[in-house]
Amino acid sequence: MTGLGRKHTYSEAGVDIGLEATAVKALVSTLTFRRTGECAPAGGSGHFAGLIEFGDYYLAMAVDGVGTKMLVADVMEDWSTIGIDCIAMNVNDLYVMNIEPVAFVDYVATDKLSIEKMEQVGMGLNEGARQANMTVIGGETATLKGMVTGLDVAGTCLGIQKKDAIITGEKITAGDVIVGVPSSGIHSNGLTLARELVNSYARYDHEMPWGTTLGEELLTPTRIYAGVLDVTAACEVHGMCHITGGGLLNLLRLGDWGYEITDPLIPQPIFPWMQSVGDVEEAEMYRTFNMGMGYVFIVPEESVVTVQRVFSDARPVGRITDTPGVFLRGESIESV
Fold this sequence. Notes:
This protein has helices at 10-13, 17-28, 69-76, 82-95, 115-132, 191-201, 214-219, 228-234, 270-277, 282-288, 304-310, and strands spanning 41-42, 50-54, 57-65, 100-110, 135-143, 151-162, 177-182, 239-242, 258-261, 293-299, 315-321, 325-328, 331-332. By secondary structure, the chain is of the alpha+beta class. It has two domains: 34-165, CATH 3.30.1330.10; 177-332, Phosphoribosyl-aminoimidazole Synthetase, Chain A, domain 2, CATH 3.90.650. A seven-stranded mixed β-sheet has the order 8-10-7-11-9-12-13. Helix 4 (82-95) packs parallel to helix 5. One of its GO terms (biological process) is adenine biosynthetic process. Residues 174-328 form the PurM-like C-terminal domain.
């Protein structure tokens, strides 16, 4: 079954990336107060994590949640991996600046407490923390009947790095190689559109040709790219990107360069399935999902071999150019 002439988009499903960016700018524009004295903020907003002065180090903070992947967990009655997603979406945002995550606090909001759900969420948080080698040092649980329906999980991560080791993309130059590292699947972004496609044209218990049900596929936990710190310790890295909501457009956060993806990674089967049944345009897929590439290194040619030594499944996917924008096989994927 296909979209029957109806071209599905992320915006039509309920998430307008352009509006979201404008709304965030409206909020950030009001945040004018900055602490003075010790532990003052460093730099502005717009990168993957905020920095705080801490002597010879920067402290970094990132915050994120699981999003509507929680609704898939509810349908499948399996909350055991949701905590991994929550940890991953935070620590991966620290890794892109070469920051080591050290501590995490979670926030769980629900309409009604369930011991079983809380235990399963905790299992996932613990496993995610193990993969990232950090400690969940606390959290908050709120019962918000009438305000929240079901369960929502989010968290905040604290990281640290020496000031001279921070990577922000400032050293990126034309000719640098873009090296992609595969995702584990859909991760924790684009689920609003993915759920619409499943609800419209299939079922969560539908077994796919590759051996999992759609529900199991959408619940595959987000990959945690802890090996990043080994790469940056061993070779020169000019920039990194976590491919989350907004897909390849996340690359624009690294600077006004041309990001030419000429040889993209092969997406997992879930992505062409969604594209086919929903009649989703290719550019829309790459603006919404990670399309099989969850993390990107931007490095000089001589560093590629080191990236591949740490991440054996990584490979070059393109180059940096002087023509600003994000291009897939020569075509811009930015919204018109």
